[in-house]
Amino acid sequence: MAIVWSVPPPTNMRGRVGDDVTLRIEATTTAEPPDITYTVVEHPPGLTLGETTGDINGTLTTVGVYEAVYTATDGNMDTVDGPSQWVVTPDVQTVHDVLVTREQLRELVSTPTGHEDALDLCCILATHWVKYRVGELTLEEEVEAFPPYVLIPVPANPGRLRAAQIAATRFWASPQAPFGVMGGFGDLATRVSASIPEAELALQGQRTAFGIA
To answer: Of 22, 41, 78, 148, which has the fewest beta carbons less than 10 angstroms from its beta carbon?
Structure first.
């Protein structure tokens, strides 16, 4: 048989700068002698691959997305490849003031457990949506958001709170464009400038502003 993976490379890996990594990949072959060696291209900086052991060790050092490809080669020069994406984020916690909290949004969308990062991101984005609507945020301002997030609830009048709750619920319920945020902020201007009439009504405090009886 051809050379095959018995312990294939991980397909999707996420980590933060400073994280230690200890993994092993392994291939088997019927070649005699087997003489299996391992190589890799586009490895995250800080990691090493044991040429004869398949051990992956080291400490992540550089933020980025790395499309690594591992190759095992046997004594007959037969090969097997294994792609692996590594996403390395900064060794920081991004701190955000929010008008609506994770637990408030969890209750609103009836999600009892899990999804912490996605819920937090919706709360962050909803807060920025409100700030943009009341003139406290410009679309030119950059916002960094890398999990894990630190959310700090801030006091809000009833109109702002309700608008933030509506906007966060809308972002959560619509993971596709133009409101989706599950994969990250993407284009902040597109997200923050999106029209959410129900939330705009809550901010203005009057239905007549939109010609609604």
So the answer is: 22
Q: Is residue 37 a contact partner of residue 2, using CB atoms and an 8 Å limit?
A: no
Domains of the chain: which residue ranges? 4-89, 94-210
In whole angstroms, give the CA distance from residue 63 to residue 25: 23
Query: What are the structure tokens assigned to 124, written together?
Result: 């962050």
Supply 11's token pair: 């397909």
C-alpha 162/C-alpha 203 separation (Å) is: 8
Q: List beta partners, residue 73.
A: 37, 79
Q: What is the pLDDT of residues 90-101, one digit of tens each?
A: 877 677 889 999
Q: Which CATH superfamily is domain 4-89 in?
A: Immunoglobulins (2.60.40.10)
> How is residue 158 written in tokens?
């009833």
DSSP three-state, residue 57? strand
Whole-prediction pTM value? 0.54
Which tokens go with 100?
């609506």
Cα–Cα distance between 213 and 210 in angstroms, integer? 9
Give the alpha-carbon dihedral of 135, 136, 140, 145, to 10 degrees. Answer: -140
Give 158-211 pLDDT, tens digit per residue.
999 999 999 999 888 875 434 444 344 455 566 777 888 889 988 885 344 444
User: Residues 166, 108: contact at Cβ < 8 Å?
Assistant: no
Sheet holding 47-49, edge to edge: 20-24, 55-59, 47-49
